[in-house]
Amino acid sequence: MKMWEDYIRKVVPYVPGEQPQGDLVIKLNTNENPYPPAPGVLKALREMDPDQFRRYPDPSASLLTKALADRYGLPQDQIFVGVGSDDVLGMAFLTFFNSQKPILFPDITYSFYPVWADLFKIPYETPALDHGFCVDPKDYRRENGGIVLANPNAPTGIYLPIDKVEDMVRWNQDSVVIVDEAYIDFGGQSARSLIDRYENLLVVQTFSKSRSMAGMRIGFAMGSQKLIKALQDVKYSYNSYTMDYPSVILGAEAVKDETYFCQTVAKIVKTREEGKRRFTEMGFSCTDSQTNFLFVSHKKAPARAIFEALRQERIYVRYFAAPRLEDHLRVSIGTDEEMETLYRFLEKELPNLSLR
Amino acid sequence: MKMWEDYIRKVVPYVPGEQPQGDLVIKLNTNENPYPPAPGVLKALREMDPDQFRRYPDPSASLLTKALADRYGLPQDQIFVGVGSDDVLGMAFLTFFNSQKPILFPDITYSFYPVWADLFKIPYETPALDHGFCVDPKDYRRENGGIVLANPNAPTGIYLPIDKVEDMVRWNQDSVVIVDEAYIDFGGQSARSLIDRYENLLVVQTFSKSRSMAGMRIGFAMGSQKLIKALQDVKYSYNSYTMDYPSVILGAEAVKDETYFCQTVAKIVKTREEGKRRFTEMGFSCTDSQTNFLFVSHKKAPARAIFEALRQERIYVRYFAAPRLEDHLRVSIGTDEEMETLYRFLEKELPNLSLR
């Protein structure tokens, strides 16, 4: 082993969900939106001027931050955009979590948080969710170097009411509190309403779920001018031009069509609520998900066996071989037709998969 | 000041070149390509299926790494892609420069290197270029935690012959040596030819200059499987999906058209060589640039005065208010028409700008 190999940063990378190819696949494993982006996105794509590609994009992605500022009633300098919410969150960890005190996030949550903490050598502790998979804000009333809360949480789908979120932020005004709202558009109230009162609160959202733009890699943060300025400075110290020309143009278009956005979200919520009923009828327990996925566990059939039987059928859901999760499946909300295919298969196969 | 403000990472961000808007501007300040991307890029853009946007992109960007592997005769696992070469370089600093020894790069070079070093708290030292702005490989024969060499160098445009690059790599087999070849397609031989022999050599290139794709944010690295695997692991620990769907599709198309690529590069090289002649005739000294820009200094007229006069005329070039650079201008190679406009203005105005 050469000396330079000793100085390679040691990491255990995050493993993204499988991306199976082919048209005959039903893909309910990465919480993508089953509906296409807003029609304005297609129009802007068709009209895009490829001669612009030779130019560097606007480093401030101003067209996109303006669209978001207008949509959410904030000044542009309270909005930060990045290459998916993973880029925004990773940069926030790097920017804000530089004390020697541990940051806090739940034991069961988005599995990227410990990966970023390890990457940037940030100590962390993970208060356990209760038996119903809920966050108890009291667990976050201790010295810390920062707090990260996914709300609604993943993979549980459970939403922490806004007054409890505010409780956590109020108790922790010496720390930056990040609320990761990847799924908030499908249920619950955004902590965005609190940023005027708490300068230490950063709210992160994404275009990957409710705006059907996972392939375009757009995420954003909303917060005080101080927090956003600090993020911008770190961004400009890493990569001046993170947002490419198409993502700025098409992202701005996606935000403008509020009607389409509301219709799409409403369809997914309707399918989700029907899903809760159907899964329960089949003997599953099911959290009260406020997201675009369900978190289910069958009383007789092991999750891994169901996962594998579905995979054979080319229906992909997510299974986590992790403590407290190994009895559960995370099922993204697809179209009604895709969900019906899933239910019919399960209704047929569950008796064969169940332990006596 | 709140306690959380103490823990914000302290940085001095990189300042990108101005991006003036409008059609009447001649923009020779950010080394963009004056010609559009390959025709296949336009075709692929027009045929792009926006329904794919709802899906996460391929995290390995395999279509793009395959196109690069085919083009450069390397296996796919010796290629890493990122959001512009800045993303690739930033990630390489984070991945490889984790010893306590200082990394080395020249005092005059791409001004992002010290910014990344500061961001990731990497100590560094900067051996001075000689009076002709050349790198002396002997300056790099001392203990270090890594080496970064821009070749050709910026903003000087000067190319270090490949045998001297190899000398640096051979002397430093305990360190990772990064050769940043943003401009190599315009002159000189790529250190890619050395990667089979030196496992510690990482060669970084970009689509922003020779491939007219600055707006798409695509950069790549070539190196040993060990180096590429280490970069991949850090990438998957930061953001699984850095390359969006359009950049993968359009980037692959750009690589495929070798004929267009060669024609475009040849045109720029011809304009550059003519530029050396014209600038010299006007009383400028001019390095033997092997890039898509010229680095010039007038014997009588101060660089700042020329810069400002040009800016008044809406002709943008780059001026660096930095030690050893403040007498120089960096002028990107535009079309022949744009360059002619520049020369005519200078021929007319230089007498007025010159000190007696």
Can you offer a commentary on this structure?
- The structure is a homodimer of 356-residue chains.
- The model of chain A has no long low-confidence stretch (mean pLDDT 96).
- In chain A, a hairpin with a 6-residue loop joins strand 9 (284-286) and strand 10 (293-298).
- With 356 residues, the first copy, chain A, is an alpha/beta fold.
- Chain A folds into two domains: 3-36 and 259-353, Aspartate Aminotransferase, domain 1 (Alpha-Beta Complex), CATH 3.90.1150.10; 39-257, Type I PLP-dependent aspartate aminotransferase-like (Major domain) (Aspartate Aminotransferase, domain 2).
- Chain A is built from eleven helices and 13 strands.
- Chain A has helices at 3-6, 39-47, 62-72, 84-96, 113-119, 162-171, 225-236, 245-256, 258-281, 303-312, 336-353, and strands spanning 26-27, 79-82, 103-104, 124-125, 147-150, 177-180, 201-206, 219-222, 284-286, 293-298, 315-316, 318-319, 329-332.
- The radius of gyration of chain A is 21 Å and the shape is globular.
- The N and C termini of chain A lie far apart (53 Å).
- In chain A, strands 2-8-7-6-5 form a five-stranded mixed β-sheet, sandwiched between helices.
